[in-house]
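Running log. JK asked me to keep both predictions on one page so they can be read side by side. First protein, sequence followed by its tokens:
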Amino acid sequence: FHCTFEAREVSVLEDRGYGQLPDRLEAGVDRAFDLVLACKGRDIVVGMGKSGKIGRKIAATRASTGTPAFFVHPG
């Protein structure tokens, strides 16, 4: 019974944490966008694997909208 209680308690704590995630994530994402938009000059995007594919897309989108942007593979 002790293990069952711990599992239930962990589940409740995780659920509470996930409930707070949208508020925390939203503030961080807004701040990240503000920082990117405030940058002057060229954007250099770095990523490997799936994040690299997303980084290429971000760099291409930024370049197509008038901001000099480059993707650099970290390898």
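And the second, directly underneath as requested:
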Amino acid sequence: MAGLDDIIDNLPIRDIARKLGVDEPTARKAIDDALPALVAGMGANASDPAGAASLEKAVVKHDPKLVEGGVNLDDVDEADGRKIVRNVFGGNTDQVVGALDKKEGGGDLIAKLLPILAPIVLSFLAQQFQKKQAPSGTAGEAP
């Protein structure tokens, strides 16, 4: 999925690894496991009208500048990320996180990673939404 690759390309893997206390290959594998689950969860929520409205509201609140030119981890609001993760997975949060952490060999790597990734994904979606809203051929033109 091109969207996932676009998000991953903007992630500071080295900084994420350092923040999580793991090496870069371990961080990248965890991202490769967690990111699709997070995006799939958002997609599942958006499949019903209330979930779609909630996701749209969340996307509008997130600044696309977070993902422009690469992500600075200092700009990622992990408290917001924890709220997003709870909203995405709801009552299944512990099971999803537990299953992904087990896949990573145990520990709480995914539990630490998801709150970092969630605001980044919403900012990426905000950026994509903004691009779709801009009339083609008019970007940068004076009115």
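Observation for JK regarding the second prediction: Residues 138-143 have pLDDT under 50 and may be disordered.
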